[in-house]
Amino acid sequence: MRTSARSGKNSGSNPLLLVLDSNEYVFAFGFVKNTASEELLEFLIENLPVHDIRIVRTIVEEVNSKLSPEQTKEFFAFINAFTSVDEKWVVPFDLGEKYLAFLKKGDAAIAAYTEFVGAQALVSENRKHFHTHKGRFPFVVWDAATCLKELKKLS
Amino acid sequence: MSKVAVRDKNWTAIRQQAKKHLARIRELGRQRGWPKSDATQAQVIEDIRKVREKLWE
Asked: How far is CA A81 from CA A62, A73, A107, B35, B57, in A?
């Protein structure tokens, strides 16, 4: 049984299914300084396989847009170590449509993907878009610092 | 991932592998001048969102 991030209740085993936005990976890799993003990724690795991290192909491509070819190779190896990449076509179009009322197509697709995989939380530093609509999703929207705090509470 | 698949994996080795790849990505970044002092987090987020919009077109 999984923990309900929204209610804060848990069943004892405390796993969460998370989708990390591309900015979390880019910040965790050190492109710009963000200690919370760095610590979150390190925490998730250290606690594998307690929490499940899902990633869609477009997030991989967005991260790759900031990486050199050699870093890209390492990133694929990094991702393949503990999860598998979902192709974007796995997300039903209808699911994303409802988010188009307040999000751009790309962000709507990420929200739909997060809902589709049944994640309890989308972790993103994108305050301007996801965080301002956080009450409109069936999952919680956290930044890395909040996510880290919540995961530490569960462990 | 099924519970059996999760149980059967050597997670100690996987954690070590993931840490190794993460450290390598960061080291390669440092060699490229990361962390960037001329970019704010907000700018980077917007840059990535532009890539996102193109990918979902």
From this structure: 19, 12, 26, 25, 30
Phi, psi of B31 (to 5 degrees): -65, -25
pTM for the structure as a whole:
0.91
User: Which pair of tokens denotes residue A29?
Assistant: 């890799």
Comparing CA positions, the residue from A146, A90, A107 lying closest to residue A21 is A107
Nearest CA in chain A to B20: A78
Residues 72-101 of A with CB under 8 A from B: 74-75, 77-78, 81-84, 88
CA distance A23 to A26: 5
0.95 surpassed by complex ipTM: no
Residue A6 has pLDDT above 50, yes or no: no
